[in-house]
Amino acid sequence: AAFSFTTANVLAPICVSPNLPITDNSPAGVNSTITITDPSQLLGLQVQIKATHTYVGDLKFTLSKGAGSSILINQPGGGNCSGDNIDVTLDDASSTPVQSQCNGTPPALSGIDSPANPINAVFAGQSFAGTYTLNAADLAAQDTGTLTQWCLVPTVAAATTTYTVGGNVSGLSGSGLVLSLNGGAQTLPVAADGTFTFPTGLADTAAYAVTVGTQPSNPSQTCTATNGSGTIAGANVSNVAIACVTNNYTVGGTVSGLVGSGLVVTLNGSTNLPVSANGSFTFAGALASGTAYAVTVTAQPTGPIEVCTVANGSGTIGGANVTNVAVTCSDVIFKDGFDGP
Questions:
Q1: From 200's CA, which of 119, 129, 263, 272 has a CA 20 to 30 Å away?
Q2: Average pLDDT of the residues of the chain
C-alpha cells in the first residue's frame, strides 16, 4: 500500500511498516512504497531498513523513484552472511560498508553503514516529492522472512521566507482596476475600496514597485500609488496607498447655419453659453465621468430670426470630452416668402 506524507523541511524519519513477507527465491521480490508530497529540494537521504529473515546473505534491497534507482544491500558477505535479521541505517557518509558486515548475534546487519551503492548520487539535488519504492528480494532458496519497516530520513533545503506586498485602495467607484507588481510579474484585479495583497510573496531585500496596470472605467477614474516602491525589509509591506479620483470632462460641439445674434445654449439647465458665430463651442467647467448631460437652446437668434435645433445633445459622460453636440440653425421662412415673426 502507498502512504502519503507532508514534511515541513525537517530531518525526521518518514516510515512505513508493511510487515511484508519476502517471497523466497524470487529475484522479482516484493515492493513497498512511500509517497512524499513535500516539493523541497532534497539535499541528502538516509534509508533505514528493518527485516526479520534468516541467512541475510540471500537478500537484496533496491530503492527507486522514477527513473532513478540504487541497490542498497546486495547479498552481504558475498552471499555468505548466515546471520539473521536486519536493523540498519544506510548513510553514504558512513565508513562501515554494509556489504562486509555480518554480526554473529542478531541483527546481522546493524548500526549506521554505507550502502552497496550511493544514495545521494541518485536522489539528492531534486525535489523530495515523489513515490519511493523499496524492493526486497530473496535470491536463494530455503530461508525466509519479512520486511517489517523501512524509513526515509531526509535532509531538505530550508524554506525561503517570503513577504507579501499590499496596501489599501480608496475612492474607487469604477470597475476594471488592475494593480501591477514589478512590471506585471504579478497582477491583481481590485473591485472595491479596502485592503489588497498580491498573492505571491517576495524574498527579503527584493525590490518591489506597485503601479496601476489598468485604470477603472464606468465611471472613468485615475488611480495613483503612494508608497508604491521600495525594498522588502524582513516584514510584509502593507502601506501602499492607491487613491482613485473620478475624471472630469467638458461638453461641447459645433454650431452651423447661424446668421442672427442672441443664440444661447444651456447645459443641464444651468450653465449658459452665448454663441455669436458658427464653429466649435465648449461649456465652461467640466462634469464628472458618469454624470448625465443635456444641451438645449434657451434663446433663439434674432436679426434675422432663426430656429436652432440640437442633435446628440444628451447622454452620459464617459471617458473623454464630449465634442459631438451639433446645433443647427435655419431662417424662419413663411410660405409667402417673407421673413417675420
A1: 129
A2: 93
